[in-house]
Please model this.
Amino acid sequence: MSLGIRLPDFDVLVALYKENPESFEAFRKQLLWDAVGRAPEEQRPALELILKQIDAAREAASNPIESMMLAFKMMQQSLIQLRCGWEKAQYALAELQTVLIIERLRKHDP
Model:
């Protein structure tokens, strides 16, 4: 999947981070907000909220490792919510299919 953006080489990004962390952070934030801006309109509010939550967690962290752990935990919770939603949808579909099959059988019952 291409975002239409050509990122600098990894080594260039590492050098930028080491030499000028503020510029690296500004670049990182700009890339993220640009991606949100390219998202479908109906998805932007949720994406903006997620970015704000991630930024708040990063600022609350005492070091980069803690920041990464907080981000990982947020992603894990999001995946759990997605899985629960998926399972609910599957159960709802199975229930609907069952109702339709029963109705069809009743119509054909002599």
